[in-house]
Each structure stands twice: as structure tokens, then as C-alpha cells.
Amino acid sequence: MLLHIQLLIQFKLVMDKVLGRILYQGLSKQGMYPIPFDLPLKFGSTSTSTIPSSFSKTAYVGKTIKNLLWHQRLGHPTNEVVKSMLKKCKIFGDPTVDSTSCEACLLGKFHKLPFPVSQTRSEVPFDIVHSDVWGLALHLSLDGFKYFVIFIDDCTWYT
Fold first, then answer.
1. Residues 60/30, Cβ–Cβ less than 8 Å
2. Residue 26 near residue 14, CB atoms below 8 Å
């Protein structure tokens, strides 16, 4: 049986994808979606059984997701927008990480256009040396560096 679980802001549906039937629907309680086990469960088309009463009556599947992941899933909005949306939806994220550590957002904030393509080349090594600095990287290099610099000789193109 293929199941499809659809979470709306404060409402939950569990559907059979093949038949398109709703198997369970319910409301959110304090940001969680309780599933009562005293409902009959159908296995196949002929048998019906219930979960024994020795089991807990409600199951909760919950995991705290870092705000950075919500930031990426929601299309890279500001920290205030992410926090506001999570609060309105009663979703508890991990506020220790925010979008200031999002590498895509940092790269998207560069404002300087690249230099025009030069038609001339140096004829003597070390006559013109190009350089570029990049950083702050999310992950440290093997030697523990966060910033990187590259030098390119215009004549030989050695780095």
C-alpha cells in the first residue's frame, strides 16, 4: 500500500496514492501531528485489525531541523522571514544556525562585475601576475584555512 502524507499548516492527511482515498486526517497539537492507534487499520482488501492496547495511543515523529535548512527550502529568505514562518506554523527549528552562514547567499551578494577580457598577453614571465582571493569558506581546508588566494602568471599561465 502506497501512502502519501500531506502536511498543511495545522492539518494532516494520510492518503492512499493509488486509490486517492483519505485514510486519516487530523489537526496539529502543539506543533505535532498525533496519530491515534485505536483506529482500525486495513491490510490488503479483506482483513481489518487494530493495534494492541499495550502500545502507546499516539505516535509522534519529530526532529528539530536547523533554520539554515528551512532557509534553503524556503528559497533563501531573511532570518526574520524564516523565524516568522516557523512561528506561525508552530514548527520548532534550531535557531543556532542562521542564513548568514549560507554559502549561496554570500556568493549572491557580490556586486562587482568581472574585468573585461584582455586581448594582450605578457611576453615575459612575472611581468603581469593575476590574483584572486576567496573566502570565508564554510568548511576549513585540510590545513585549517578559511580563505584562499590564487596567483596566475599571465605569460605562462602557471598558478
1. no
2. no
